[in-house]
Amino acid sequence: MPTKAATMPHAIEVSSLSKSYADGFQALKSVDLTIRDGEIFALLGPNGAGKTTLINAICGIVTPTAGSITVSGYDNQKDYRQARALIGLVPQELTTEAFETVWSTVSFSRGLFGKPRDDGHLERVLRDLSLWNKRNNKLITLSGGMKRRVLIAKALSHEPRILFLDEPTAGVDVELRRDMWEVVRELRDTGVTIVLTTHYIEEAEQMADRVGVINEGELILIEEKNELMQKLGQKQIILDLNQPLSAIPEHLQDDRLTLEANGMQLVYTYDTHAERTGITGLLQQLRDAGIHFHDIHTKQSSLEEIFVDLVKRNP
């Protein structure tokens, strides 16, 4: 009998997970991670950081060296069948059955999980991914972007409650990206948990509820996306000057103040959580110095800038 917990579990619970290979390479180092039901969780990290290894371990494709994983309360090794049935996986690699049709491939994938035939569900999935008109095409005839759509359709064929998207839009067209994210939003609205890795950090910024950053096999941060941006992000005030400056006047020298746009902009960077931002004093000093500006606007650090900064701080 499966060992599902009696209490309401999280979608994914990873505890002290490590993975080492025979050559001594340690791909994961004591990873702890909880993913909540119904959230979109973005896992960010440079190439080789351990993103795919972590996903494959959760999906039961890679056997960890140490630690435990539960999927909706099912141990993913002791109760592999129950755990895996809850998961849909869109891998990075375009692995498809070249001479099968789109319809037969997606139908077969549903059958692998013991799901009864449901042509209506498969039709909805194919229509959502703009594949319906290609349903009778052999996969070998499809473009790379269309094959990527088929992988997503296969992952959704058995109606999973947790969907893993491993770099799903890498190298695909803008139309597919738009279609796929629309499907992701609709799935989240029905309670499906989404876990994604992506190099398109603006997508994580737009889509995710929480963000995890992994580097060299270690999770260096897990944070609510909005809190992360507020906590680590910096704001800038950008002053568009009436007249160019050749240099910042000596009495205004400040590490937080830079001259940009060929001397036509003063940029002041400040911490939004500091007790005093220094903005009021700066504006007064500019007036006293006779430096006038015609426009003022602000800029918030992007998630990409925060991510790069975190990786630099945790080499």
UniProtKB/TrEMBL annotation:
<keyword id="KW-0067">ATP-binding</keyword>
<keyword id="KW-0547">Nucleotide-binding</keyword>
<dbReference type="Pfam" id="PF00005">
    <property type="entry name" value="ABC_tran"/>
</dbReference>
<protein>
    <submittedName>
        <fullName>ABC-2 type transport system ATP-binding protein</fullName>
    </submittedName>
</protein>
<feature type="domain" description="ABC transporter">
    <location>
        <begin position="12"/>
        <end position="241"/>
    </location>
</feature>
<dbReference type="GO" id="GO:0005524">
    <property type="term" value="F:ATP binding"/>
</dbReference>
<dbReference type="InterPro" id="IPR017871">
    <property type="entry name" value="ABC_transporter-like_CS"/>
</dbReference>
<dbReference type="InterPro" id="IPR003439">
    <property type="entry name" value="ABC_transporter-like_ATP-bd"/>
</dbReference>
<dbReference type="InterPro" id="IPR003593">
    <property type="entry name" value="AAA+_ATPase"/>
</dbReference>
<keyword id="KW-0813">Transport</keyword>
<dbReference type="InterPro" id="IPR050763">
    <property type="entry name" value="ABC_transporter_ATP-binding"/>
</dbReference>
<dbReference type="InterPro" id="IPR027417">
    <property type="entry name" value="P-loop_NTPase"/>
</dbReference>
<dbReference type="GO" id="GO:0016887">
    <property type="term" value="F:ATP hydrolysis activity"/>
</dbReference>
<comment type="similarity">
    <text>Belongs to the ABC transporter superfamily.</text>
</comment>
